[in-house]
Amino acid sequence: xxxxxxxxxxxxxxxxxxxxxxxxxxxxxxxxxxxxxxxxxxxxxxxxxxxxxxxxxxxxxxxxxxxxxxxxxxxxxxxxxxxxxxxxxxxxxxxxxxxxxxxxxxxxxxxxxxxxxxxxxxxxxxxxxxxxxxxxxxxxxxxxxxxxxxxxxxxxxxxxxxxxxxxxxxxxxxxxxxxxxxxxx
Amino acid sequence: xxxxxxxxxxxxxxxxxxxxxxxxxxxxxxxxxxxxxxxxxxxxxxxxxxxxxxxxxxxxxxxxxxxxxxxxxxxxxxxxxxxxxxxxxxxxxxxxxxxxxxxxxxxxxxxxxxxxxxxxxxxxxxxxxxxxxxxxxxxxxxxxxxxxxxxxxxxxxxxxxxxxxxxxxxxxxxxxxxxxxxxxxxxxxxxxxxxxxxxxxxxxxxxxxxx
Lengths: 185, 211
Description:
- The structure holds two protein chains of two kinds.
- By secondary structure, chain A is mainly alpha-helical.
- Chain A has helices at residues 7-18, 22-46, 54-67, 79-96, 105-108, 125-131, 135-145, 151-158, 162-182.
- Helix content of chain A is 65%, strand content 0%.
- Chain A is globular, with a radius of gyration of 17 Å.
- The mean pLDDT of chain A is 87.
- By secondary structure, chain B is mainly α.
- Helices cover 74% and strands 0% of the residues of chain B.
- Chain B contains ten helices and no strands.
- Chain B has helices spanning 3-14, 26-42, 49-52, 56-79, 88-92, 95-110, 116-121, 125-147, 155-177, 183-208.
- Chain B starts with a helix and ends with a helix.
- The mean pLDDT of chain B is 93.
């Protein structure tokens, strides 16, 4: 299956997400993980780097796709937009590892192999950075992500209002992205 | 953190309707309105503003700045998406300088040689070069704040475009106040002021427009 085959599905899910369909958004993010892993693998190989950073690229790309999802022009294709963000993050990580990379969006959009061994390493850049978040944001992000709790359950557990949890989650994710940027020095 | 965990957090954060597109331009609009209000309160347009609007030089001066602002705005909007460039708007940015050159030629052709230096130096060049950047500060901050919600692959260029747009706004306000309308004056001093703001935008963009 090629990346371009995901176009219709992703565009439809993103449009639904923009209307407030949370389930559609979750499905969209989940369906992006495997293609992003393949993109990351290809890009890292191209930069002559090992495959250890695949998951970092994938996670940072997903975070960026999430925070910048409003920048997708719904009158245009979504797959190139996703790949452009992936490439941006790939370049950042390669630079961080003191590598160099020359890769175009077209290079990255070539066909995806179906069988792809996925890494199970669990300690990544983002895990480390979450530890450094402000206390409340850290707790909320951990409960919602690692423990997979809903906003309501998290609010009950932490004795906060749902609104406060949502704000802490959003700010925590943005702070995470800012810390990723700072680690690029 | 496993990637599935991160997806949980992102999905929870994204499970709501997107805010309308116009909400993102509020910082730029707000900052510009505050600047215009401050200008109206403390500086104000030249006393003969209405009459000046009937003179070609004044209209040309304002028109060139509007053209600059429109081109910078068009280019900035395009450059905000990942993997896109300014396209035709980049070319449109060449129009104001080209038109200015034509105005300069016309001015040189229609005024006596002895008057050129006086027209070029004008009555208060220093005020022009300092006030335009000063008036552009808030608009630049607001425009950069708006651009931060984008995802540009060219933060320096985007910052420079923000600077050009801010300078067009500051330039329009100053131009409405200043009585030096000769294209010779405009060509000598306005690009200097605009360049300062554009350069500041580029430097700021390099740091604030990363994502």
